[in-house]
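Table S2 (text version). Query chain:
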Amino acid sequence: MSTVHVIRHAQASMFAADYDKLSARGCEQARTLGEVLARRWLAAERPGFDAVFSGPARRHEHTAALAAAGFASADLSFPDPVVLAGFDEHDGQALVVAALGQLPHDQPGLAKLATHAMGKSA
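Corresponding structure-token output:
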């Protein structure tokens, strides 16, 4: 029987100048993911993944690369990811910024957050 594992990329750098980059925490999450999955594969006497697929964003590819290191250190198979354009995602940051821009003006705390998120000075 085949098993499909669907894993979203690790934490990106929300509101940073370059969102398409894993945060320090995201790098830690991706490394931990690889290490934990590799331990589980070893315990189950599985040889690793048969195939790996990734979205085209750098954060997708970086998550896969860091997770692959855990498999490599356990001498388990983690094939080079096949990049699929259809695995790209919506622009989450733009959606958040647009939603924050629609806030009522009687919410000063939220308006300040929206201003910050849009990269404007308060």
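Notes on Table S2: Helices lie at 24-43, 58-73, 92-101, 108-117. The mean pLDDT is 84.
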